[in-house]
Amino acid sequence: MTECRSERVRFHALGSREVRAGFDGGDISSDAGGLLLREVEKRTGIVERLAACFRDYRDPRWVEHSVVQLVAQRVYGLCLGYEDLNDHDELRSDPLLAVLVEQSDTRGERRKRARDRGQALAGKSTLNRLELSPKEGAGRQVYKKIGRDEEAMDRLMVDVFLEAHPEAPAEIILDLDATDDPVHGSQEGRFFHGYYGHYCYLPLYIFCGEFLLGARLRPSNIDGAAGSVEELDRIVGQIRERWPHVRIIIRADSGFCRDAILSWCEAQPGVDYVIGLAKNSRLTGTLEPDLDRAEREFRRTGEAARRFRDFSYRTRQTWSRSRRVIGKAEYLARGRNPRFIVTSLPKTSHAPADLYERLYCARGDMENRIKEQQLGLFADRTSTATMQANQLRLYFSSFAYILMQALRRLGLQGTELAHAQCTTIRLKLLKIGAQIRVTVRRVWIRMAAGYPGADLLARILANLRKIPLRC
């Protein structure tokens, strides 16, 4: 980007005027709004603390890009819409991204090798070595010498959630869900999944509202609930360290209705659950009178009718005890639609209709959060060969989501984008064209004069400046 190209390109004329373009505008970036992410980072330290989860075994004599800069480059790149490592062979020349990752040599003028000068940041090969480094034993590797502590990354996700609350809430809801992550090569751990109809991974996600607390990559030849108890035990235990008395509700669909999960919740003080229950002939038979009444009401009114029944139920083989089940007897234009949930919440405080419609059905918002991360922050770019490396890519995507969610939570409050998804935030706030000029004393960012969100950006920056910087 530091070399101006004088070639001119001729386009169709505007009336009597020629229309010509050239590549001589100097240092120009399309991502000037990324400076907002840097302001969020200065106040939360999300990227810096993520980088602290890595251990660098490289010879410092030859290191030009610190681990913090490598991690920041990868996370900021995902936030700005660059999903592939190949993108970074062009991005490494962008002085705006150099500013974001705290690279003082914004034009790469002090690089050791002549062929690297003019490229301040790491290229795809360096970032690829970061991703392919083993979790353990990196110090014995020849080229891939940056190890990582995934347990520390897991704890950091929960720490960010805890730090966002100045006081312990009375109650929180943890949502669990699994989704498909399609693979298109011969990656380790790939299996064909009959339900989704393709080769994929089956990552497990745990959210609390908009906060991502866990993202675990798994092969798809397992039960969708596999590993849930271990993840819940870890996350709930960490939450209890900070908030010993908070009430916790575990919420999930019928894919997580397993006796191990239900029994674990029942054994934990202050932990309840509301989980979908797959229908069967015994359950549907219990609802027959209510389904008949709902059908008669539908025939009379022409509108969807539903009734609820509260009863005790135990499976013949898989459950260790009887549990409270709520059945929804619903009749729609397409016919009967019975649904069931199982819960440990008491009847005295949670009526069946309210528990099903207000509490359980709200879990659908978690699916929006998963789509936001998978589609908007490229959690599905798990195309490298090993499960370890693909798990690291999932971590990078997860922390890109956490950084974007922090921008939404801290900067966009009170604005028209307070509930915008990451893709909308990127389009409206981060993708701003700007000319960049670096002097000895200043970095000048001249944004496009026609940018329609200038006032909004000023309000967001004012919101962020109310938050103290991290020491």
Summarize the structure.
This protein has 471 residues and is an alpha+beta fold. The protein has helices spanning 34-44, 46-51, 67-79, 88-91, 95-100, 124-132, 150-163, 228-242, 259-267, 281-286, 288-301, 352-360, 364-376, 387-410, 422-430, 454-465, and strands at residues 5-14, 17-23, 28-29, 54-56, 146-148, 171-178, 181-182, 191-193, 198-201, 204-208, 211-216, 247-252, 271-277, 305-313, 323-332, 335-336, 339-343, 434-438, 443-447.
Describe what this molecule looks like in 3D.
By secondary structure, the protein is α+β, with helices and mostly antiparallel strands. The chain folds into 2 domains: 5-17 and 24-150 and 384-465, no CATH class; 164-376, Transposase Inhibitor Protein From Tn5, Chain A, domain 1, CATH 3.90.350.10. 37% of the residues lie in helices and 22% in strands. It has helices at residues 34-44, 46-51, 67-79, 88-91, 95-100, 124-132, 150-163, 228-242, 259-267, 281-286, 288-301, 352-360, 364-376, 387-410, 422-430, 454-465; strands spanning 5-14, 17-23, 28-29, 54-56, 146-148, 171-178, 181-182, 191-193, 198-201, 204-208, 211-216, 247-252, 271-277, 305-313, 323-332, 335-336, 339-343, 434-438, 443-447. Strands 6, 10, 11, 12, 13, 14, 15, 16 and 17 form a 9-stranded mixed sheet that branches. Strand 1 and strand 2 (17-23) form a beta hairpin. Helix 1 (34-44) crosses helix 14, helix 1 packs parallel to helix 16 (454-465) and helix 3 crosses helix 14. The radius of gyration is 26 Å and the shape is globular. The model has no long low-confidence stretch (mean pLDDT 94).
